[in-house]
Amino acid sequence: MKRFLLGLSSEEEKTLLEERFFADDAQFDEIEILEDELIDRYVRDELPAEDRVHFERRIANSSSLRERVEFAKLFKKKVAAAKVNVVEQPAPVLVATKPARGGWMQSVFGTAFFPPQVAFASSLIILMVGSVVLILFWMNLRSQSNRIFAQLNAAEQQKHAVEQRMADQKSRTEQLATDLQQARDQQAAQQELIDELRSQNQNTSPRLSTTAFLSLIGGASRGGGKGNELTIGPQVRRARLSLRVDEGDYPTYRVTVKTPEGNVVQQQQGLKPRHNTLTLQVPTTKLSPGDYIVNVEGITSSQTVEPAAAYSFRLNKNPKN
Amino acid sequence: MKPEPHAQRDPGTPSKRPSAAGKYAITQQAFDKLLVSLASDRNEAGAQFEVIRTKLVRFFEWRSVVAPDEYADETLDRVARRIDEGQEIKNLRGYIYGVARMVLKEEIREREREFVPIDEIGDRIPEEPPAPIEPEAREVCFDRCLDKLAPESRSLILDYYQEERRAKIELRQQLADRLRIPPNALRIRAHRIRTILEKCIINCLQSAER
Lengths: 321, 210
Prior knowledge:
The structure holds two protein chains of two kinds. By secondary structure, chain A is α+β, with helices and mostly antiparallel strands. Chain A has helices at residues 2-5, 11-23, 25-43, 49-61, 63-81, 103-109, 116-204, and strands at 211-217, 220-223, 229-232, 238-244, 252-258, 264-271, 277-283, 290-299, 305-317. Chain A is 51% helix and 21% strand. In chain A, helix 2 packs across helix 3, helix 3 (25-43) packs across helix 5 (63-81) and helix 4 packs across helix 5. The longest helix of chain A is centred in the middle third of the chain and has 89 residues, at 116-204. The radius of gyration of chain A is 57 Å and the shape is elongated. By secondary structure, chain B is mainly α. Chain B is built from eight helices and no strands. In chain B, helix 2 runs parallel beside helix 4 (92-113). The longest helix of chain B is centred in the C-terminal third of the chain and has 27 residues, at 183-209. Chain B is globular. At the A-B interface, helix 2, helix 3 and helix 5 of A face helix 2, helix 4, helix 5, helix 6 and helix 7 of B.
């Protein structure tokens, strides 16, 4: 509204305000009162400099506004001269007469003269009645005071209960916030791990097997390489040898891998065939490029060891993969 | 609300001023119909008329129209004519606002047509500014109008507009308490008395000029 009165409103704002004050008298009163206040502040030099400039522009274009400003100046002068009479407004006088001769008794009982005995008796009665009234009043006050005290106590208890509930609620909220934070931290750590694994996967792709396979059957061999040869890359950590045996010959077998010179590379006992095949894993760290002999021995139920089969293979290492 | 005795236009009679276009002069009959459409009670209608006219004057004034009173009357004349012609108006206040906007547009067009570039002004004699009002005359009118106010209104307005900021707030609260009305009602009451005083002074100054 102030913008409107300073002539700073847009056309839309003006239209909206005009529609409102044409429909609503209270709205119109409000604008007029605000304009009065604006004029008064202008006259008292209380308007900010920018507002003053805008307002003076309006004054220059409106004779009616000029007239109202003149009125406000004169009004200011007259009001200053007028005595403030709000606080000095005389209170309505209920008894304005001077106490007559005879004092209050005469004013109460009229102008008739009473003998001293009558006056004394009357005073006594008044005193007694007054005492009874005072006692009743005091009792009533005491009862009210007790009631108020009880209400205050109840209110105090309620307040404590509410405070306690609020404290519990706050504590629960804090706990929830902590849990939430922990869950977020865990999630972030997991996400970090996932990202790291993804990154590793991207770096190692295409994926290469860390196990080389070689099948040896009845003295001959079939493997990942040529014939009885097994070629492994640097990523291969173990060679898995599959050895064909006849089912039911022995309950368990002992397999020994050794060099032609007779050095034992690996030996494993108690191997049981599965689908006529014994499986043996040899760590590649134990294998150097060269020829190897694999002896398979059957162990009878009486723990006697008997030669069952022999195989040979050649191991080659490829430094690239 | 009783029509303000110092109003510039008596709500009981139509405007004597010819319309801006000069084609239509409002009749008593049209004017009566306008009042009836404002309220069935004649006094109430007069009060309503006064409020609407004040709003129109302020509308034109806030839109920087030079003679807002004339354009307010022109608006009311046009509305009265439409009612006299039998036009059915459901929202009278909204309709009056619409007519006022049309009158304003015409006024703006007229103003633009009359605009003369500065180098074409030549020896044209500028319109004489209104004669300044003697400060004494204004003060005499002020005192006279203040005296015309009811004592309680006079006391209220002088107390309400006391200047000291802090004391002003307290005084207004005391005033509201004394009158047993909310502070905002006091604000409106003070404004109404101020408006009456302003109008009285304008009338007083005009009659002094004559």
